[in-house]
Amino acid sequence: MTLDISTDKARLDLDVIHGFLMDAYWSRGIPRETVQRAIDGSLCFGGYVDGVGQVAFARVITDLATFAYLADVFVLPAYRGRGYSKQLVAAIMAHPQLQGLRRFMLATFDAHGLYAQDRSRGPSG
Fold first, then answer.
1. Which of 78, 79, 94, 113 is a Cys-bridge partner for 55, taking CB atoms 3.0 to 4.6 Å apart?
2. All structural domains of the chain
3. Nearest to 89 by CA among 101, 105, 73, 102
């Protein structure tokens, strides 16, 4: 199964995103309304599998000129181990609106290896 990655917010499944973030260590108990506001103010990436729906998500908080912060990155547990997180991060790093930034930041407790792989391929600039 291939992962279709899109920045179209109309395709995002708020139930999937909120459901995951409610239990994530970095956002435990987050209200649905807060998730919606965060999506509204961010450049979002959804990952979709045909016949399944949304299985991955990430959002980038950015001024689109000098700074970006990668947040809320996840692949649903049933779809891990298929390279989807690598595809998602690669799509984010290659996105045209994120090129030329001076600083691209991320805080992670459990996925240092994933992001270290893309460090040298960060947005050009």
1. 79
2. 4-119 (3.40.630.30)
3. 73
User: Cα dihedral sign for 122, 98, 6, 115?
Assistant: positive
* Beta bridge pairs of residue 57: 46, 74
Cite the DSSP H helix spans in the chain.
14-23, 32-40, 84-94, 112-117
Structure token pair of residue 88: 């998602």
Q: What angle is formed at CA 48 by the lines to CA 43 and CA 52, rounded to 5 degrees?
A: 145
Q: How far is CA 23 from the centre of its chain?
A: 16
- In the chain, the largest separation of any two C-alpha atoms, in whole Å, equals 39
Mean pLDDT on 108-123: 50
**Partners of residue 97 on adjacent β-strands:** none
Residue type, 75: V
Find out whether 67 and 101 touch, Cβ atoms under 8 Å. yes
Sign, CA dihedral 59-63-68-69, equals negative
Q: What is the pLDDT of residues 41-60, one digit of tens each?
A: 999 999 999 999 999 999 99
